[in-house]
TrEMBL record:
Keywords: Cytoplasm, Endonuclease, Hydrolase, Metal-binding, Nuclease, Ribosome biogenesis, rRNA processing, Zinc. Its cofactor is Zn(2+). InterPro entries: MetalPrtase_cat_dom_sf_prd, YbeY, YbeY_CS. It comes from the Bacteria. The keyword Hydrolase applies. One of its GO terms (cellular component) is cytoplasm. It comes from Spiroplasma alleghenense. The gene is ybeY. This is Endoribonuclease YbeY. The keyword Transmembrane helix does not apply.
Amino acid sequence: MHELLFNNLTDFKVDDFKKLYYDIFESAVKKMEIDKNLSFSINFIDENEARNMNINYRNKDYIPDVLSFNIDTSYNPEYQAEDNQVELGDIFICQEEAQRKALRYNHTLREEMAFLFIHGFLHLMGFDHELSQEEEEKMFHYQDQILKEIGIEYKITFDEQDYLRG
């Protein structure tokens, strides 16, 4: 059985996002044909914690909207755990930054939070859009298809500030 562990370390109400994330996750499991039981945490953090984590773990000084940390380097479908359970790692989402980006890119908060979850989950699964154009296309294809499956049309928009962050 899959295990999504939610930790809300903010004052924001996040119950609506839990159901959304379960729906996205179930869509991803089907689309990606995952036959293992996955376990990972989704942590809602404030902007101070997000910035501190980004500085400490990535050596980048800005407030990220989502951070993902794998327990291993990537999901391996050949891995045979005794209980068929695979622990992936942790996703950290900063709702304050998500709200700012939703306004800047003309998305709803629900769309932005959905995107951040699937983006973080795909990183836990071993995808990395920063490795190559091919890897980016593969990851973004999954993002688009999974979000469309649950009725979200998300258009990725970048501005100069995003490119400068790297």
